């Protein structure tokens, strides 16, 4: 050190100082930005909701959030014990993974690969008996074809992987077999996660190779109904993965990814981002986008058993109610075993914990009341967000108070404008609370009220005009 | 010997950078000439409002021969003068790809066709934006499409099919509650005519006559950094103002409002270089004709830059800047070598 100090000239010192400045200045700016972000989280704007009852927008789609995923925490038919509870959720799609490692599908004899669908068919039968279509995550590598028998490794022969995919599609979408139409097949599940192989966009464990051979298998499938092949099913929405798939030139019928984000606004940002990325690829811009798992954290959390999870899911649905994905899959339907501490991701607790419905279970049908034509709503705040609709001359406002970081409560002013004179009934329904109806005389064209929303609460206001 | 090498490399760099820029611009020109011209227009193109008044603008598209799959509209304006209340899809695109968002001086929405087998063609309203006038303007302000507005079309690859856009020019008066007086009727775009009622010549004096007609913007002999500048000025109230821009020439007529204000933003981009504006108006009361002339320069080589028009670019600013930066780095490194050698010896 002392030698360096003795030998360093003033000019050398200046050069080193300049280089240090170049390196540290961006870091300093980044740190300041992060500090401001953290400080700003503590502050926010209250809502002041105004609904224009005459400003009609697009028709609200409610199907998109009636999609659910079931993880493979057990290698059994996990949904068999909750079919009635799941049926009540009116699911359109139910996603399953672990197809090849839980249900002994692929074997080998002297003539090559063999396929036994009996166990997986039983699970699929449960899904269809509920009234939903299965979404099948083609995962993981069958042990009999995987390198070293490891289910998260590439196969010894890529053509065998293509054959597995082909046979799966022919079995479920094949006209001579299960004859299902419009099935979504995802290539793998969370390939970027170490637990599922830490696949990359290059190297030996190249997801693009995995996908390309899956596409080969899909294209080889004979006598099949319409089906969809997609990916990359990553743990988040990553531009490099999406564009790599696009630019690979192979068959892509939809894009799928997972989103575990505490901030509901990030879901809308993701939608804007993927559209921006795909705009220069006109043949891909309009392909369906599926968020095949979502939540506020990928880790197990006791909050999944609280109103926090219900408010978060509602706030996410509000963000995606216009311009959202084709389907948004809540993860997951049922907890795994040994989660009596309440940290499981499920909407329903496990059999060993009473098969109890958690708060999040109740939002889907509650939100369905909002079906109709969207109305212009303004004045959302930092915590309280919402949307409005009209159906059968009843105007409705969905409000959700979600605070990702605390326990914020709020008295929310709500004003309905452009009303014809007359007497109106205003019904206030809290998801877990009071249900009251009040009459109002409207002569000035608007009706102003307010509603108290405690932390992590959801409410619908319904305004209808009395006929006499 | 090494010094010679350094000099040669530096010279190559000096030649390569302008050559790259030139080739990029050439490609851009070729692209503009070859592609069908999809355009976006904010209507009304000229409007006068009072403070606190709410109004809507329509973003209208003419696809020309393109088959449009999706569009991302990004609109910018002065947040001190205007507030966007909402942006919604119009009737042209049935598919909301990402919901409309409004911010401080911005409004955005992404829309698409139902699928690629039924792309959008023709003309129609892409989106409607509702604004509130916040403060009076001393000169008309523009609501325009920002340069990242993108129109994706079949068979156009990754190229932006949008070739030009027309902003809306808004004057906000401070007289709250006063009746707004648009310079043109709402929804009517100033008409381009090849036979102006008055035919000023380029040889007209380079100064305003003693008339009441004046050109307030652009400023005389100034440079503008947009290829579609807004021309505005004063004329007798209610008079028909004929604006001719040489040397193309482009001629349009607009009507001065009750305060004598008139404005027009060029619908077609001008080439870089000197231009002359000749404005003529006939006083509706006296029948007297007045003219004013002004010279200005379009000083932009980058049509995707400050103009606000989303002209597709074959070359890219980033690449050029990177090349320039690399060049500078090489030159800097090269120039240090003799010094370092001297230090070593």
Protein model, in words:
- The complex is a heterodimer of chains A (468) and B (345).
- Helices cover 29% and strands 27% of the residues of chain A.
- Chain A is of the alpha/beta class and 468 residues long.
- Chain A is globular.
- Chain B is α+β, with helices and mostly antiparallel strands and 345 residues long.
- Chain B has two domains: 1-32 and 314-332; 33-177 and 201-298, Immunoglobulin-like (Sandwich).
- In chain B, the strands form four sheets. In chain B, strands 2, 4, 6, 7, 9, 10 and 12 form a seven-stranded mixed sheet that branches.
- Mean pLDDT of chain B is 76; it is low at 177-211 and 301-317.
- The interface between A and B is medium-sized, with 21 and 30 residues.
Q: Any idea what the CATH architecture of the largest domain in chain B is?
A: Sandwich
- The percent of residues in helical segments of chain A reads 25-40%
Low-confidence stretches of chain B: 177-211, 301-317
Q: How widely separated are the two ends of chain B?
A: 17 Å
Short descriptors:
heterodimer, A: 468 residues, alpha/beta, 9-stranded mixed beta sheet, 8-stranded parallel β-barrel, 19 strands, globular, B: 345 residues, alpha+beta, Immunoglobulin-like, 7-stranded mixed beta sheet, 5-stranded mixed beta sheet, 2 helices, 20 strands, 39% strand
In short:
Chain A has 468 residues and is α/β, with parallel strands linked by helices. Chain A has helices at residues 2-7, 10-41, 83-87, 99-102, 118-130, 158-173, 207-220, 239-248, 265-278, 282-285, 307-320, 363-368; strands at 49-59, 67-70, 93-96, 106-109, 112-115, 133-138, 183-187, 227-234, 254-260, 289-295, 327-331, 373-378, 384-391, 394-401, 410-417, 422-430, 435-442, 447-453, 457-465. Chain A starts with a helix and ends with a strand.
């Amino acid at each position: 050190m002392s030698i360096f100090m003795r030998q360093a000239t003033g000019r050398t010192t200046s050069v080193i100082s300049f280089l240090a400045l170049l390196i540290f200045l961006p870091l300093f700016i980044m740190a300041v930005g992060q500090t401001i972000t953290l400080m700003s989280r503590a502050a926010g704007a209250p809502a002041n909701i105004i609904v224009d009852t005459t400003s009609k927008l697009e028709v609200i789609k409610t199907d998109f959030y009636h999609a659910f995923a079931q993880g493979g925490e057990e290698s059994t038919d996990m949904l068999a014990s909750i079919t009635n509870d799941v049926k009540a959720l009116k699911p359109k799609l139910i996603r399953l993974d672990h197809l090849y490692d839980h249900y002994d599908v692929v074997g080998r004899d002297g003539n090559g690969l063999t396929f036994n669908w009996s166990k997986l068919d039983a699970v699929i039968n449960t899904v269809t008996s509920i009234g939903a279509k299965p979404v099948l995550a083609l995962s993981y590598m069958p042990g009999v074809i995987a390198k070293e028998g490891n289910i998260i490794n590439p196969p010894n022969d890529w053509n065998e992987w293509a054959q597995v995919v082909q046979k799966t599609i022919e079995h479920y979408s094949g006209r001579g077999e299960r004859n299902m139409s419009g099935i979504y097949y995802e290539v793998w599940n969370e390939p970027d996660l170490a637990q599922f192989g830490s696949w990359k966009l290059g190297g030996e464990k190249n997801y693009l190779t995995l996908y390309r051979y899956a596409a080969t298998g899909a294209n080889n499938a004979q006598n099949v109904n319409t089906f969809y092949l997609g990916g990359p099913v990553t743990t988040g929405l990553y531009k490099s993965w999406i564009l790599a798939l696009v630019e690979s030139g192979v068959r892509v019928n939809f894009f799928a990814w997972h989103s575990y984000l505490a901030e509901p606004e990030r879901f809308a940002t993701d939608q804007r981002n993927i559209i921006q990325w795909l705009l220069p690829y006109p043949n891909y811009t309009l392909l369906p986008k599926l968020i095949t798992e979502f939540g506020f954290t990928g880790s197990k959390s006791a909050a999944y058993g609280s109103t926090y999870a219900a408010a978060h899911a509602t706030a996410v649905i509000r963000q995606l109610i216009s311009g959202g994905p084709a389907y948004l899959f809540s993860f997951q339907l049922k907890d795994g075993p040994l989660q009596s501490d309440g940290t499981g991701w499920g909407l329903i607790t496990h059999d060993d914990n009473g098969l109890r419905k958690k708060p999040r279970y109740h939002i889907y049908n509650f939100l369905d009341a909002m079906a109709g034509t969207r109305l212009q709503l303004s004045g959302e705040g930092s915590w309280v967000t919402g949307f409005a609709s009209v159906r059968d001359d009843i105007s409705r406002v969905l409000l959700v108070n979600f605070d990702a970081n605390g326990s914020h409560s709020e008295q929310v002013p709500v004003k309905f404008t452009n009303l014809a004179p007359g007497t109106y009934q205003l019904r206030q329904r809290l998801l877990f609370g009071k249900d009251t109806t009040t009459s109002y005389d409207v002569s000035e064209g608007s009706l102003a009220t307010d509603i108290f929303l405690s932390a992590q609460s959801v409410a619908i206001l319904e305004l209808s005009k009395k006929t006499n | 010997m090494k010094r010679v090498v350094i000099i040669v490399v530096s010279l190559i760099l000096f030649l390569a950078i302008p050559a790259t820029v030139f080739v990029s611009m050439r490609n851009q020109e070729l692209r503009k000439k070859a592609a069908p011209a999809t355009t976006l227009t904010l209507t009304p193109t000229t409007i006068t409002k009072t403070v606190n008044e709410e109004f809507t603008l329509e973003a209208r598209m003419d696809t020309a021969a393109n088959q449009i799959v999706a569009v991302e509209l990004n609109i910018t304006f002065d947040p001190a003068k205007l507030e966007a209340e909402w942006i919604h899809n119009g009737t042209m695109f049935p598919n909301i790809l990402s919901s409309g968002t409004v911010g401080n001086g911005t409004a955005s929405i992404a829309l698409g066709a139902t699928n690629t087998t039924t792309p959008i063609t023709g003309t129609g309203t892409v989106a409607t934006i509702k604004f509130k006038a916040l403060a009076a303007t001393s000169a008309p302000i523009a609501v325009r499409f920002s340069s990242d507005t993108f129109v994706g079309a079949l068979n156009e690859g990754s190229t932006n099919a949008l070739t030009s856009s027309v902003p809306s020019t808004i004057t906000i008066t401070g007289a709250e509650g006063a009746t707004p007086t648009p310079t043109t009727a709402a929804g009517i775009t100033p008409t381009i005519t090849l036979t102006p009622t008055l035919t000023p010549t380029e040889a007209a004096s380079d100064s305003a006559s003693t008339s009441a007609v004046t050109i307030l913007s652009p400023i005389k002999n100034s440079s503008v950094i947009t290829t579609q500048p807004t021309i505005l000025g004063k004329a007798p109230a209610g008079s028909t103002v004929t604006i001719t821009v040489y040397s193309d020439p482009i001629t349009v007529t607009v009507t001065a409002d009750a305060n004598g204000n008139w404005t027009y933003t060029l619908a077609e981009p001008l080439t870089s270089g000197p231009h002359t504006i000749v404005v003529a108006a006939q006083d509706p009361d006296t029948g007297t004709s007045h003219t004013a002339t002004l010279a200005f320069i379009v000083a932009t080589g980058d049509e995707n830059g400050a103009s606000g028009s989303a002209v597709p670019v074959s070359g890219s600013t980033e690449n050029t800047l990177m090349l320039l930066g690399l060049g500078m780095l090489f030159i800097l490194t090269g120039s240090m070598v003799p010094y370092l050698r001297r230090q070593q010896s």
